Amino acid sequence: MLSHDSIWRAIDALAERHRLSPSGLARRAGLDPTSFNKSKRQSADGRDRWPSTESISKILEATGSSLDQFMALMRPAAGKGAPADEREQSADIPLIGFAQAGAGGFFDDGGFPAGQGWDVVDFPAVLERRSGIYALEIQGDSMLPLYRDGDILIVDPTAQARRGDRVVVKTCEGEVMAKVLSRQTSSGIELLSLNPDHPNRNFEMSDVEWIARIIWASQ
């Protein structure tokens, strides 16, 4: 029997099967990236909403999935591919786009999520859950070929970043970037670009608001 929960569960499972967030799946299908956000699954008066048949058709086409495969994902135990005890450990974590992350009010002084305007994304059950982690959604092609538009980065501001780690850095001027940490001293950091069309960057530590290590990416 069809239900709101089963349809949305299938959409979430299809996104995860292709290592995408629900918003990344929507982007891949040419839909508004907020189409499958949890906030869009209920109307303002609290009533459950159905996704449109057009949107379902587009995500099936974009992922090369059949209707039968989609319907199989509606079953409660289907889709995620992890044991039930692992699925039960999953939880929502804050999600924000790179463009928004550069604006003020979304992080505290330590680089932890703060303020309003955050969306949520399912935290991968295969990772160890840690306090303070959050997700950033890639927007645009500045991080190709490693990260594509719609990919999700899980970031841990408490993890120690070492040479060779992929990191997200926010400068005091509000610029947010994903790079490879080449060198860090008490006075400055050297960052290697993920995209050969973009230059490497060096900063004095006084110009860096925070640096956080990337612990997982939905590639």
UniProtKB/TrEMBL annotation:
GO terms for molecular function: DNA binding. Residues 42-51 have a biased composition (Basic and acidic residues). Residues 25-53 are annotated as: Disordered. The keyword Lipid metabolism does not apply. Signal peptide: none annotated. Keywords: DNA-binding, Transcription, Transcription regulation. It holds the Pfam family Peptidase_S24. Gene3D superfamilies: Umud Fragment, subunit A. Transmembrane segments: none annotated. This is Helix-turn-helix transcriptional regulator. It comes from Sinorhizobium mexicanum.
